[in-house]
From TrEMBL:
Signal peptide region: 1-21
Species assigned in the record: Candidatus Magnetominusculus xianensis
Methyltransferase keyword on record: no
Keyword Oxidoreductase: yes
Region (Disordered): 458-487
Domain of life of the source: Bacteria
GO molecular function, one term: oxidoreductase activity
Pfam families for the chain: Cytochrome_C554, Multi-haem_cyto
Protein name: Hydroxylamine oxidoreductase
Keywords of the record: Oxidoreductase, Signal
EC numbers on record: 1.7.2.6
């Protein structure tokens, strides 16, 4: 991909989103409005903490007060009358876009703003059914909703904000600062997911803990991975040298000690501007079981950024890397990383998904109407293989965290594949063969044949004693050389 074509596509992406931003843009007030002065007169006493936070913000210095952010027109979704003013509790990205047009456009076209779309996925169904019940009843959910989803999934990914008849926000959906929150005005996202109210400190937003609110835990432990990595070690050792308050904050110019999450994924370099589309420097979307490039999802969602391919995004990330590392170091790292991605895909993901689909066919034939997804141990085993171990190894390798790559990634994949998944597949085969249902018998035979073929591939045949003797001999030779070297 030529540099010329790359910048043409970037320009097309910017042009496609500019018109709406231009339509929203407002001028910065020359002085604090009378409406905001009235808000301050009361809230400096009733919510003094909020008043203090706002007083430390650039909004305060720019004469942007409560009313400028919270104002609404009568009849707009979520609007209500408050002491003579029409306002909304929620300040949506669309509201922020009145002044921050570029940032709004970039965010609106990012994966981050679409995080709420997980609500119809397998992850949220787990919280609805396997983990929860319908015990939480509100005006918006008279039939009930799962408290597990409300307190867990929705708080990171975002809820669909419901406005009740009295104009108040339904407690099942608010408070919520989920990244992909669906707001009453129809916009997707939450700026306050990263920019905490009401100071909106740029230094706070640039720190890795800010991302760690959601990017942590068994399925995507980026904050833990960052902390283990050389990047994280250097950051915490040199935090006072990071110049986090700097307005332009260009890596290699304003700071050189270490990067944070923001450095690599969105902040400025000497030849790239800040972007609020966090996915534009990420080649791989590590959420699915199978390898998928980030732009493929953008294309499905109809986003202009779908034109920025995975390789183009990787080229942008490399520009960040060479702000601190030389080209040879950077290129060698990506060779290592891509090799790990292919290892995960070929050894675990492709055969694992194929086996689980066939095992599900067997279970459905055996159980009939009694079959339910995630009522079977093998469903959890396969889910964790790709959703936990598989994601961990990919994230860890991408961020240079060797312990997570090995002991929380590759090792857990192998242990759970050979120690749990394969034995459970054999149990499903046995169950299908013993069933009086002929379809179950047939599906069990198909699964048994499939498992036998996969176990006899180069990746797995060692586990059934079918390893090539020359490979085993070569490994023994290397072990002997190692023992001799360290006698």
């Amino acid at each position: 991909m030529s540099k010329k074509l790359f910048f043409v596509l970037v320009f097309m992406f910017a042009a496609a989103t500019y018109s709406f931003a231009a339509e929203l843009k407002l001028e910065i007030p020359k002085e604090l409005s009378k409406e905001s002065q009235a808000c301050v007169a009361c809230h400096s006493n009733t919510t003094s903490n909020i008043y203090a936070h706002w007083g430390r913000s650039k909004h305060y210095r720019g004469n942007v007060g409560c009313y400028e952010c919270h104002m609404k027109k009568k009849g707009e979704p979520g609007a209500f009358e408050h002491n003579g003013a029409t306002i909304s509790v929620i300040v949506s990205p669309k509201d922020c876009g009145k002044c921050h047009a570029k940032e709004y456009d970039e965010f609106a076209n990012s994966h981050h703003s679409k995080a709420g779309r997980i609500m119809g996925s397998l992850d949220n169904i787990l919280a609805d059914v396997a983990e929860g019940n319908s015990g939480m009843k509100t005006e918006a959910f008279p039939m009930g909703v799962s408290a597990a989803a409300v307190n867990g999934c929705w708080q990171c990914h975002g809820s669909v904000i419901k406005v009740n008849k009295d104009g108040k926000l339904d407690p099942a959906t608010w408070p919520n600062t989920g990244m992909g929150r669906v707001n009453p005005d129809g916009s997707e996202g939450s700026c306050s997911a990263c920019h905490q109210r009401h100071e909106f400190s740029v230094a706070q937003a640039r720190q890795p803990e800010n991302c760690g609110k959601c990017h942590m835990g068994p399925d995507h432990p980026q904050i833990e991975i960052f902390t283990e990595s050389k990047h994280g070690i250097n950051y915490y050792a040199n935090k006072d040298r990071m110049n986090l308050e700097s307005s332009k904050w260009i890596v290699g110019e304003d700071y050189t000690a270490a990067p944070t999450c923001a450095t690599c994924h969105m902040s400025a370099t000497k030849d790239m501007p800040v972007t609020h589309n966090v996915g534009l420097r990420i080649k791989w979307n590590n959420r699915p079981a199978q390898l998928k490039q980030a732009h493929e999802t953008d294309l499905v969602w109809g986003l202009p950024s779908g034109k920025i391919t995975g390789d183009m995004r990787m080229a942008s990330m490399k520009k960040v890397c060479v702000s601190c590392h030389n080209v040879n170091f950077t290129e060698a790292f990506y060779i290592q990383y891509e090799a790990q991605m292919q290892l995960y895909s070929e050894k675990w993901a492709k055969p694992g998904e194929k086996l689980h689909k066939k095992a599900t066919e067997v279970l459905k034939a055996v159980k009939g109407n009694e079959y339910a997804s995630f009522a079977n141990k093998i469903d959890y085993t396969w889910f964790e293989l790709w959703h936990h171990e598989g994601r961990r190894v990919r994230h860890a390798a991408s961020m240079q965290a060797p312990d997570y790559t090995q002991w929380h990634g590759n090792y857990d994949l192998a242990r759970n594949w050979y120690g749990s998944y394969v034995p459970e597949l054999k149990e499903v085969i046995e169950m299908g063969k013993k069933s009086p249902n002929k379809e179950a018998n047939m599906k069990a035979d198909e699964l048994e044949k499939m498992l036998h073929e996969i176990q006899n591939t180069e990746n797995h045949k060692w586990s059934i004693g079918n390893e090539d003797p020359s490979v085993k001999a070569d490994r023994k030779k290397r072990i002997d050389e190692f023992d001799k070297r360290y006698k």
